[in-house]
Write a structure and sequence with these properties.
Length: 116
């Protein structure tokens, strides 16, 4: 297993290995050619939730701990479902742009959500 192999494009597993001219992911079974790698995606940052699931635009997530919100006496309670997230390069680690029911548009950190 070489340390220079790219992660699996399907599940982002890091245990890919070479089998002839193909790369194989033992986690999901996906096979791909190293030349199939999109040119622009080599430097894309993979954003993971609190338990390590890879997040994507449009996912639904659940808040895993109660969050304080400036100007709100209650904050966002743990277990609140947030639909249709958008991944962004936010400020101070806030990498999810979303609308939370009852609070409106805001940014959250991926470390406080879990993919549903």
């Amino acid at each position: 297993m070489s340390e220079n192999l790219p992660p699996c494009p399907e599940c982002y597993g890091v245990y890919a290995y070479e089998m002839g001219v193909l790369l194989v992911c033992p986690e999901c079974g996906h096979e791909w050619s190293p030349s199939d790698e999109p040119a622009g995606e080599g430097g894309d940052k993979v954003i993971k939730d609190a338990v390590g699931n890879v997040l994507a635009d449009g996912d639904t997530v659940t808040v895993v701990k109660t969050l304080k919100v400036k100007g709100s006496p209650t904050g966002i309670k743990a277990g609140t479902k947030v639909r249709n997230i958008r991944l962004v390069d936010g400020v101070d680690g806030h990498d999810i742009d979303c609308k939370v029911d009852g609070f409106g548009a805001m940014q959250l950190k991926s470390s406080v959500v879990k993919k549903v």
